[in-house]
């Protein structure tokens, strides 16, 4: 689901990129990443200045990254961060840049941690970052920055854009939220459900980019995939009874469990049917399967629950030949009815080919050539090549593998598809 784009607002000149943060000890880095949304939520609830609060929390996190590894983590790290960030925010309001820089070292060194409410505002922050006034790209970037704690440079690298471009995108997103007058509170009624769907979609997009990078030399971005899982866990912790939240978390866990078997030692892609399933992460599979069973017991079915059920069906099969393709196809049929999407049809064609033969799958693919979203897309071309290969049409498969390789911006996928083409190339 993509949020509507409002009329454009004049962009503010982006702030020059800050110097990169110093290396942080892994334990401190993980602690800061988990505390960042909680501290930001506390400040936004108290002061109501999202843009200023977000900057202050980033500065407090930088101070902690410098001090904690050498001086030790304080007894109340969350309170420490709230205190330092609050002082930074007050400095921003009352003082000029020079005064803030003079006082920052003293402010960080003489911290008496505040007593802060024992509440986690991560969900509220996600709702704010996924405000309908923002485009999907801005929602994703702002979520990773404000809730995920990633730096602008890290987000820019993940999406292969210049840091200045990403900084401007995040700055405009903050301006639009401010112009929209959004309050730091959960919307009520249908508005809450609509916003939650956007939140889940943004987390889904982050995970997908992490699981299969849209471009570049590497097949995946495991840091993004892990961040999406972490954020989805935080939503599930606050909404454990929501079947779609549970379904999305299960889908991520079951899919991420395959990562150790998805590539060769050289980094080349290994398709699902050829993966060494003993290398799959069994702990993630067990957790994901338990979530699926609980989610499917609910009164209705949603797209994330159904996708998770499909992933669980693959996880249940000890070998590719043991896959219950009839069940997979049936689940895709239901998914296609409740959430029509050409990618769902594409995947159903693969399952149908396993049940009724490659010609049935190819027939299902034919209408997608007229869909502007899929015509010429490398995934449609590669699936058609796969089914042509299964049907014995080596020349057709070779042509479509080559076309798919030319259509994808991912170097890892290009190598894989060129390799498949070489395997079926007619003599």
How would you summarize this macromolecular structure in one to three sentences?
The protein is an all-alpha fold and 427 residues long.
Verbal overview:
This protein has 427 residues and is mainly alpha-helical. Helix content is 66%, strand content 0%. It is built from 19 helices and no strands. The chain has helices at residues 26-47, 50-71, 77-94, 97-109, 122-129, 136-147, 152-158, 163-180, 189-211, 222-238, 243-256, 282-296, 303-316, 325-338, 342-356, 358-365, 378-390, 394-407, 411-424. The longest helix has 23 residues, at 189-211. It is elongated, with a radius of gyration of 24 Å.
List key phrases describing it.
disordered N terminus; mainly alpha; single chain
Write the layout of secondary structure elements.
Layout (H helix, E strand, L loop, with lengths): L25 H22 L2 H22 L5 H18 L2 H13 L12 H8 L6 H12 L4 H7 L4 H18 L8 H23 L10 H17 L4 H14 L25 H15 L6 H14 L8 H14 L3 H15 L1 H8 L12 H13 L3 H14 L3 H14 L3
First and last CA, distance: 46 Å
Count, helices: 19
The class by helix and strand makeup works out as mainly alpha
User: Helicity range of the residues?
Assistant: 55-70%
Low-confidence stretches: 1-24
Strand content: under 5%
Total strands: 0
What is the C-alpha radius of gyration, as a whole number of Å?
24 Å
H/E element order? HHHHHHHHHHHHHHHHHHH
How would you sum up the major sheet? none
Integer average pLDDT: 83
Q: Based on CA inertia axes, which overall geometry fits?
A: elongated
């Amino acid at each position: 689901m993509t949020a509507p784009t409002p009329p454009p607002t004049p962009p503010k000149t982006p702030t020059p990129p800050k110097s990169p943060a110093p290396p942080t000890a892994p334990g401190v880095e993980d602690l800061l990443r988990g505390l960042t949304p909680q501290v930001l939520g506390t400040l936004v609830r108290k002061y109501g200045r999202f843009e200023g609060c977000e900057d202050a929390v980033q500065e407090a996190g930088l101070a902690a990254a410098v001090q904690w590894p050498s001086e030790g983590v304080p007894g109340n790290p969350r309170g420490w961060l709230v205190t330092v960030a609050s002082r930074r925010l007050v400095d921003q309001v009352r003082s000029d840049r020079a005064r803030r820089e003079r006082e920052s070292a003293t402010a960080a060194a003489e911290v008496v941690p505040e007593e802060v409410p024992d509440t986690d505002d991560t969900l509220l922050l996600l709702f704010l970052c996924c405000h309908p006034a923002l485009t999907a790209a801005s929602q994703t970037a702002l979520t990773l920055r404000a809730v995920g704690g990633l730096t602008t440079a890290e987000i820019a690298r993940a999406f292969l854009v210049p840091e200045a471009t990403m900084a401007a995108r995040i700055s405009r997103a903050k301006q639009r939220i401010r112009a929209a007058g959004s309050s730091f509170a959960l919307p009520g009624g249908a508005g809450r459900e609509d916003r939650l769907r956007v939140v889940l979609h943004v987390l889904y997009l982050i995970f997908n980019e992490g699981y299969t990078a849209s471009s570049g030399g590497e097949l995946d971005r495991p840091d993004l995939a892990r961040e999406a899982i972490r954020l989805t866990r935080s939503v599930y912790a606050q909404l454990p009874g929501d079947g779609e939240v549970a379904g999305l978390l299960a889908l991520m866990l079951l899919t991420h469990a395959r990562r150790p078997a998805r590539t060769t030692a050289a980094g080349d892609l290994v398709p699902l049917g050829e993966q060494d399933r003993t290398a799959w992460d069994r702990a993630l599979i067990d957790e994901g399967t338990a979530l699926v069973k609980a989610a499917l017991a609910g009164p209705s079915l949603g797209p994330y629950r159904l996708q998770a059920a499909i992933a669980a069906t693959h996880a249940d099969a000890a070998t590719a030949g043991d896959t219950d393709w009839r069940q997979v196809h049936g689940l895709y049929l239901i998914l296609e009815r409740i959430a029509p999407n050409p990618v769902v049809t594409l995947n159903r064609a693969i399952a149908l080919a396993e049940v009724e033969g490659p010609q049935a799958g190819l027939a299902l693919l034919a209408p997608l050539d007229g869909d502007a979203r899929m015509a010429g897309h490398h995934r449609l071309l590669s699936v058609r090549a796969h089914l042509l290969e299964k049907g014995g049409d080596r020349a057709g498969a070779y042509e479509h593998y080559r076309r798919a390789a030319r259509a994808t911006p991912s170097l890892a996928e290009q190598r894989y598809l060129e390799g498949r083409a070489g395997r079926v190339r007619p003599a």
